[in-house]
Structures are given as structure tokens and as C-alpha cells.
Amino acid sequence: MEMGTSKNPLFLCFILIFMVSSTISQVEVVTHLCSNRGNYTSDSVYKQNLATALSSIVSDTQIDYGFYNFTAGQEPDKVHAVALCLGVVSVEKCRSCLNASTRRILEDCPNQKEAIGWYTDCMIRYSNRTIFGVRNDRVLEPVFISGQNASDIDGYTQSLSDLLQRLRNEAASGDSRRKSAVGEIGAPKLGTIFGHLQCTPDLSSVDCNNCLVTAADRVPTGSTGTRIFLTSCYLRYENRLFYDPSPPPPPPAGGVPSPPLSPPPTPDNNSNTARTVIIVVVSIVSAIILVVGIFIILRLRKRKHKTPEEKFDGVSFGDTTGEISSVETIQYDFDTIKVATNDFSTENKLGQGGFGAVYRGKLPNGQQIAVKRLANNSQQGDLEFKNEVLLVVKLQHRNLVRLLGFCLQKTERLLIYEFVPNASLDHFIFGMISYSTLFLLSLWSHWKSHPIPFIWLTKLSTYMDDDVDFEKRSQLDWDRRFKIINGIARGMLYLHEDSRLRIVHRDLKASNILLDEEMNPKIADFGMARLFEVDETQGNTSRIVGTYGYMAPEYLMHGQFSVKSDVFSFGVLVLEIVSGQKNNCFRNGEKVEDLSSCAWKNWRAGTTTNVIDQTLSVGSKIEMMRCIHIGLLCVQENAADRPTMASVVLMLSSFSLTLPVPAEPAFFMHSNIDESNTLPKSDLWLETIQSSHYENTPVQALKNDPSISELHPR
């Protein structure tokens, strides 16, 4: 008997540790939002009322339908609290989640007077204002995308739409105790779609329906699994069964019957029980201390002896664990991408960017993809990779390139995008081969001390332009170019104002505009983008990133960026599209000028048509000149004088709108580069080509100091 008594506490210890670990695993934070409507102090009345309201939720055992509504205190320190359990979990799981989450939300949102947290099986929300019966369509980030793209997107989308509409009607028709619905539907080539929609039951049927409509609008096209959390409702669907189709019924209102009374304990039993309790408590405490100690030792040892590859794995977003959980579900396996790109073969290479190469690939389901493989030796690339994943996954617009997923494996960082077949805009409006070839020839001649005569280079330039520029430019008639300008403008307007976020791209240029099979533009490469809060209008940085020629003066000189910085880049891009030439080397005969300076001088002289691409023999000259006018408004030196993207979209669509007079553009050149220049022509041409090269080279990390103006090629 003594031996049996000594073993039982150890067994109970392991059982209790297992139960504790199971409970901890059930308190996973899915998403939460801490409001900035006010804070409370640790000794305030509001904190006491909040503790009372949350404890009322946990202690209430009479409610068995999963919705709780409590208030505590008096105004102005009155607390309103609601809690909701998912309709697909049992009463036991519901109460376990509530017990843990009422503590966890105070850790996630310390001292905030208003907060909401969605956890594995439940939701907790409290506020200092009335929230019961008030619909709130605020979408909590992130939107969880847990499936790959469907092979038959149209068929899958139709089946999903039918399922969500049916479940929405069923959930909205629920009573004041529960508004929840689950169901399934067959989908083409993917088996069955399972769905779950739920509202807080304090909403009316109309409000519940409208909230779920808002959630459904956020569903990404073609994804086979998504979870969307709003303040007042919830939507989830998968191509696997994620809920118990027949959950246990709630217990009767009278509660669980009491167990039969045990016989009164004897004195010996009392002694054994006390000894057992002491042994169990000591064992549990000792085991916890031992486990924590071992964990700390292993953690310190691992951190001390971390290999270079493990250190690199640390870029799995550092302190943004909550953010990266939003996109973990679209993570691709590296071997899959390796096979899709034929081991990143040269034949599949589409181009080279500032932080790595881009490859074409084909997934096993036949879907074409573009894979951006970041260079291993770029520490700055780590930040851009994290930025691009967390940013682009939240954006949905027809004029933005769509992120399908990503891959993180040791030293490999991959971004998987939709494949856009027509490459980038610069391949169509610029002579990519001619400029790069001339630049290399010039460097070679300079290095060999055998300068190539200027006339040879100009002849070669003319020949290559005839062979490349005009052939590709001819595919872009004016209607297509005007369509591209409008599409870029609408995409930038979405980034600046219409998306749930407010984003400054900071690297808008021709090579970052991709064209699909119908020549619709798609803005790409969000590695440099910066996110603004709603009330922010301007930011500062000590790292100047972007591309010379497209960078606004306030950003280049002082590191100040805003939506007006993007407007400047857009203006440069518009002038390039209309003229068919790069912004830093507009050629007029033997003269080489800055594009914006030349456009402004011609606009003032009434000879704007001199700037228009000579290949545009067909098309509205009025539209072309209006676009040049808009471009000049966008490249004005004073950021306050530049229009917003909303104004630009209006200017492009409404020709009855009178345009203001543009001021002198930034970096205005008062004299042309011509034969009167003191430099010999051969040296001048070399200088121009070198300026062209450096001006279109991405700037990855430039310190913001007074010497920056010396780096500008003009």
C-alpha cells in the first residue's frame, strides 16, 4: 500500500502537467484589437468594474448557449462586456476558452478601455460604451488564408457563393440565443467545401446578414480556405471538415446532477488524503521548476551556438509573430517551387530586381506563377521580404499584382506571385537593350583608354532603337497607353485612400508595372512600401530607398515621404509613357535633356506635341497633351502643389475639368545639353549614359545626410 501511495502522486503529477499544457494550447490568440479610445490606471474604478464584468462571464454556469452580456459599475466608469463561443464547440470547450481568454485579453491589451480578442473557440469584447445590439463591421487583421488556389476558379467561386449565401440566411434567421450555421457543398475538382458563419445573437436579422455580407466581400478569389473575423460576426470555410458535424447537446437548464454522496471519511483516510495532497503539490511545483529550468538552459545554449543558417531563419519576422500568423497558411514548400521553376533554371528567369531574380514556374495543378527569389547576401532584403509579405497579402485590387504565397526555408526566401505574361512596361516603351549595351560599350572604351567615337555610338543607338524600341512601342498604341495610365492611377488611389491600409509605394517606376494578357497594368514590388496610420500624412526615414529619377526632391534630399512622393513618381511615369523615352535622357536630335524639364519648356512654349512619342500617329492628341499637363502637375517641386491621386483620377476621367497651371518641375534644367557644352561630345555621351545607368539603379540603403545632393546625376 505504501508503494502504491508513493507512485500515485507522480502519476497524478504527469496527468496535471498534461492538463495544464492542454489548457495553454487552447488559449491561442487568433487575432485581437486594442482600441485607442482611452486608458485606465491600475488603481482606477474602471479596472475594478472590468474585473467584475469579466469574472461574471467566467462564473456564470447557467448560460449554455454560448453568448454572455454583462455590465458593471456606473457612468463614466461603466464597463460593457460581451462574450461569444463558436457554435461548433461544446459547452466544456466554451467555458474553458472563456476562462483563459478573459485573462489573456488583459495581457494583450493592458490598460485599454476598449478591446476585442478572437481566440481558438471564443471571442471576448469589452468597452466603456454600449456595444450590446450594435453592429460593428470592423474587420480584424489578419485575414487567414489557409488554402491554395482552386484549379477551377470560376466553378469554385460559384459553389462557395451558393454555400455562403445559404449559411448567411440560416445564421441571420437565428434567435436571440444563437445565430450560427454550418454546412457543406460540392465543389468542382475539390470535393466538398465546409463552411461556418456566425453573428453575435444580440444583432437583428438584418444586421447579422449585413455583417456577414461584409465578411463575404473580403473572401479572396480562388482561395480554398479562409477565416475572416469581424467585431460582430465570423466567417470560415475550408475544403476539409473542421468542425464536429454533431456536437454534444448543451446540458439541461437545471445543471448536471450531483454525484452520489460518498461515505464519511475515516481518520486514516483523512491522514492519507492530506499526505497525498502535499506530495502532489510538491511534485507539481518541482516538475514545473525542472521543466522551466531545462527550457531556459536549452534556449540559452541554442542562442549561443546558433549556426549561420539558423540565424538566417530568424527572419521569420522576428517580433511580428502575430502578423506572420496571418500568412502562414499560404506558405509553399521549397521543393514544390524548385520543381515548378525547373530548379531556378536560366531558361525560366524573367529578370533581375534590386534584391534578387524573378523566375517563371508552373505548379502541379497547371497554374503559372512568378517566383521572386531574394538574394542571400542582402540583409536589407530580409526587411523588404517581411514587409512585402505582410503588406501585399492584405491588398486586393485588379491593378495590383496578386501575392499567392511565400516560402521560408533556411537561406531561401521566395515570394510567389500570379504570373503576368507580358513582362513589365519598360520592355515596351524603352530600348532596354540599346541603353544597357551602350553603357557597357562606353565603360569598356573608357577602361581600355580607347574611346569609341561619339558618332559610332549614336549610329549604334539609332540602329538598336529602330530594331527594338519602335517594334515594341508599336504594340502600345495610344488607347492602350491611356488605359495603362488610368489603371496605374486607380491602383495608386487604392493604395493611398481606398484600401483598409494607407500605403506609400516609394518605388513606382516603369519596371514595376507589369502588363497582363490584355495589357492591363498591375503595380508590383512592394518591398519598399511604407504603411501609414490613418491620421498620418508624412513620414521620415534615414534610409533613402527607391530609384533615381523617380524620387521626389523632399524624399531624396531630406528623407521625407508621403503620398505626394508617389504622385511625383507617377508624374514621371506618365511623361515616360507619353514620350516613350526615359526620364533622364529625352533625346531631341543630338540634344539630351531631362524629360520633365523638356516637357515643361515645351508646354510653356505651346509645342507640347514635341514631347509625344513619334510612333503615336493615331490617337487623341488632346488626351496626350492633357496627360503631359497632368504629369507636369505631379512633378512640381513643392509637394503641396501636387494633386492627390483622387484628383488625378478625376482629371483623367473628366475632360470638362479645367487643369491648373503647373509650376516649374523639380530638378529643372535651365540649359540643354548640346554642342555648346564645354565637354567633348564623346565624354558628354559617356557621362549621359553613366547618369542614365545610375539614375535607374535602385538605391538600397543611402544615409540621409547633406552629401546626398552630390549623388544626384543632374
From TrEMBL:
Region span, Disordered: 244-269
Domain Gnk2-homologous: start-end pairs: 28-131, 138-242
Keywords, sorted A to Z: ATP-binding, Glycoprotein, Kinase, Membrane, Nucleotide-binding, Phosphoprotein, Receptor, Repeat, Serine/threonine-protein kinase, Signal, Transferase, Transmembrane, Transmembrane helix
Residues that bind ATP: 372
Listed InterPro entries: GNK2, GNK2_sf, Kinase-like_dom_sf, Prot_kinase_dom, Protein_kinase_ATP_BS, Ser-Thr/Tyr_kinase_cat_dom, Ser/Thr_kinase_AS
Membrane topology annotation: Single-pass membrane protein
Residues annotated as signal peptide: 1-25
Domain Protein kinase stretches: 344-656
GO BP: response to abscisic acid
Domain of life (superkingdom): Eukaryota
Protein name per the record: Cysteine-rich receptor-like protein kinase 10 isoform X1
Annotated compartments: Membrane
Keyword Aminoacyl-tRNA synthetase found: no
GO molecular-function terms, A-Z: ATP binding; protein serine/threonine kinase activity
Residues passing through the membrane, by range: 277-298
Regions of compositional bias (Pro residues) in chain numbering: 245-267
Cellular component aspect of the GO annotation: plasma membrane
Any Pfam family matching the protein: PK_Tyr_Ser-Thr
